[in-house]
Amino acid sequence: MRANIHLVDALNTSGVSGHTQKLWDWFSGPPLHIIVIFLIALIGQRLGSRAITKTMNRLASADLIPGPGNMAARQKERAKTTGTVLSSTLNAVIWVITLGMVLGEFGLNLGPLIASAGVIGVALGLGAQTIVRDVLSGLFMLVEDQYGVGDKVEVLDVSGIVEKVGLRITTVRDSQGTLWYLRNGEILKVGNHSQSG
Question: Domain containing 71: what range?
Answer without folding.
Answer: 2-127
